[in-house]
Amino acid sequence: MSEALETLDMEKRHEAVVGVVERWLGNPISRALLRLVSGRTRHGNRLDLALRSYVGEDVPEDLSFRDKLASAVTKLVIDRGSKSFGVSRGKMREYLKDPIIRRGVSNVLEGIARYGVRRPFTSVAPFLIVWNYTRLCNQRCKHCYENASPEADTSDELTTEEAKRAVDEFRDEGVVAIAFSGGEPLMRKDIFEVAGYAKEQGFYVAMATNGTLITRDIAKKIKEVFDYVEVSLDGFEETHDEFRGIKGSWRRTCEGIKNCVAEGVDTCVAITATHYNFEEIPELLDFVGEELGAKRAIVFNYVPVRRGREIVKEDLTPEERWCLLEELFKRLVDKNNPMTTYSTAPQYAVVSLELAHAPVVSTHFVSQESMRMMRGKAGALAQFIGGCGAGRLYLGLEPNGDVEPCVFIPIVIGNIREQSLREIWQNSEVLKKIRDRDKFEGCGECKYKYVCGGCRARAYGYFGDLQAADPGCPYNAEYWERVQKRMS
Length: 488
Prior knowledge:
The chain is α/β, with parallel strands linked by helices. The chain has 20 helices and 12 strands.
């Protein structure tokens, strides 16, 4: 009985905080004020200037009246918001000294100014751009969403200068993080030049790699440029080599992980869960932490897209996925387990709600400092974070400049050679469909639709409809049965 009362009390507190946020930031007056102080000034992003002033940094003396008004309004909003979430003003100022967190806060406030306090939240620009930097890859993975290979045609890929111009545009629009992926990003000779340029522009810079090219010298260069590196490891030696299509790749990947760890790189091991490795994953997680020394692991959803469609029968059942997510969450909250375990499955937030009534922040690229800031407060934000972030919090970018809602959703919604990021983000009809949770089949009828929403890539991969159900969840069992009947 006491546990039930405690749970009820916690839920009431969470709802109260959500109510405060909606009333304070979602009302027309607050939104009008936010719109007033948003935008660009001759000194740069007006909200960023206001946040710099808030933390006590030097700002230009010749600020306009609107710039000064922005500082006053922003201080009021931040102070009220920090009070709602139980964070002291001093601690909030400490957090906001991090320019990456400042850019994120600015993105959130401008998003509220434009879209209101939505459930789930839509930012004014993507928090994250996942950039498939090249189609070249030295492996031939069974699940590849890019159809990458050593012989890939790279003739239409963005040039170095075009890539830098894209970085400039992302900076001006308020993007917080850029994750370079592929293919294998280390196969492009200019990766460190362009990623280094992004770092200079104040981005949180990440990379997803197969790790086979990471020598100790390369790891040193990675440490200089990248905030975070994600290395794919899909099982132990036999499983991994067979899945990746190259014998000996497991040993080189493990060596690459060790090299990153040795150089102090924030290293995460990425595992795509299928029937190839399902039984190995718990032991593999132990191996990653104890033998390879990585402190983070993330389990990716399998998505039937491009080359990955050829192994569709190896997808986990909803029950298997749920058990795996429970295992990951139990490890996450185990004080004796030094490793942080994430998942890209949006159902992870539901599992954490049901197990502990405290959903984690599912965006795995976020800084450890911001994670510490939100610990214990995430329950109040669960419906705003909203699980699947495709088209709300991030976009995918193809090597040739094509923009997609997610790297796992092969629908071109624009090209940065031809359109601005802002035009694509604000006007795409495809993105508007993804953002409308109430119209989702199956997932839109679920009580967790604003917390999870199902994986839109899996919905599209299985049913060809962005508003279809994600069949990988026990709450959508009937849709999994449809998929199985169709494949039998």
